[in-house]
Amino acid sequence: MAEIVLGLATSHSPQLRIAPEQWHLMIEKDQKDPRFDYLALLRNANPALKQELTEEVFQKKYQACQNSISALREKVAATRPDVAIVIGDDQHEQFSEENMPMFSIYYNQTLEQKARAAQGRASWWNVAAAHPDEVQRVSPAHPELARHLIRSLIAQDFDIATSNKIGAEIGLGHAYTFIINRVLTSDSMPIIPIVPLMLNAFYPPNQPLPDRCYNLGKALAEAVKSWPSDLRVAVIASGGLSHFIIDEDLDRMCLDGLLHQDVATLRRLPVERLMVLGTGEILNWVTAAGALEHLRPDLLNYVPCYRTPAGTGCAMGFMQWG
To answer: Which positions ≥6 away from 39 have C-beta within 8 Å?
Structure first.
């Protein structure tokens, strides 16, 4: 039977791909974001946050994050799994309000990545688009495992949507390209095939609840175990933690639950706080935890990367199970 031998979780924020001296470019983005009231956040923010906004602090936090990503990549190289199941979320890259599945698995042979296009003016987007990993490439998927997971999860009472085509304009979503480019690619190992598992962590009204996500992870582990193969599998959560409004208390609650394998806490994470903008990507981590109960968790780092005095930014987290 197949075996899950490794678990990883990592943030995938643009701040991980933008040099710290250019984080200030995201201030305008946050000030104009229609999804929250920046001025209200600013009025109610802790004045001490200003100490977090120096170039020295930005540089220190950026380097800590890069070191953690390198450690995850080294863990993959040392473990050498045969395939990785990547749990991420789609942000209008393949799905839209016309059709937004709660859970979906991709089951074709290959995954096409498109390089981001610059938008013609100085912005955080253009800086991220200029990152060296923004290349056009085709990566291997694993349709045999994907089809097995689909069948097994349906048998375990999960209604799984499926996809076997990547939209030509945008290509594979960033939750997956980040993992391929930054975690699974190195000079010391071949590219590992992945199975993309999508959770709707962002868009109401059909975001899954933490309890359902944990159960999905457990069902995923059973599905892998029932696959008649001797392949070694990694499970990787992509995204999070709290953003674009950082909630350190919620992050700590989640991380403590993961580290202590406190299933009750993970199942009962406060939904009203999870469903704030990108913070829902924590559900990807909860799903991974359900699949990784048999492995020992280890927190590599937690780095709340504030970028404005209003408390906006992205809280970065990096974990491994082994």
So the answer is: none
Q: Over the stretch 263-315, which tens digit does the pLDDT of each residue have?
A: 999 999 999 999 988 999 999 999 999 999 999 999 999 999 999 999 999 99
DSSP letters of 78-108? HH--SEEEEEE--SSSS-BTTB--SEEEE-S
Task: Please list, in sequence order, all residues whose beta carbon lies within 8 angstroms of the beta carbon of residue 318, skipping any fewer than 6 positions away.
Answer: 9, 10, 11, 65, 68, 69, 71, 72, 299, 300, 301, 302
Total structural domains within the chain: 1
- Going by C-alpha positions, the residue among 60, 130, 69 that lies closest to residue 305 is 60
38-67 pLDDT per residue, tens = 899 999 999 999 999 999 999 999 999 999
For 229, other C-beta atoms within 10 Å of its C-beta total 15
Q: How far is CA 177 from CA 34, 84, 116, 159, 185, in A?
A: 27, 13, 11, 26, 11
- Residue 120: give its domain's CATH number: 3.40.830.10
Prior bond of 36 cis (ω within 30°): no
Residues 6+ apart with CB under 8 A from 166: 94, 106, 108, 111, 112, 172
DSSP SS3 for 60:
helix
Query: Between the CA of residue 300 and those of 20, 196, 255, 259, 319, what are the distances in Å?
Result: 21, 24, 11, 11, 5
Report the relative pairing of strands 194-199 and 232-238 from DSSP bridges. unpaired
What is the DSSP secondary structure assignment for residue 207, as one 8-state letter? Answer: P
Backbone torsions φ then ψ of 156, nearest 5 degrees? -100, 20
Q: How many residues does the chain have?
A: 322
Largest CA distance in the chain: 58
Helix (H) / strand (E) element for 110: namely strand 110-113
Please give the radius of gyration of the chain, using alpha carbons only, rounded to the nearest integer.
Answer: 19
Q: What is the residue range of 266's domain?
A: 3-321
Q: How far apart are CA 32 and CA 275, in angstroms?
A: 20
Instruction: Tell me the whole-structure pTM to 2 decimals.
Output: 0.95
User: Coil, strand, or helix at residue 264?
Assistant: helix
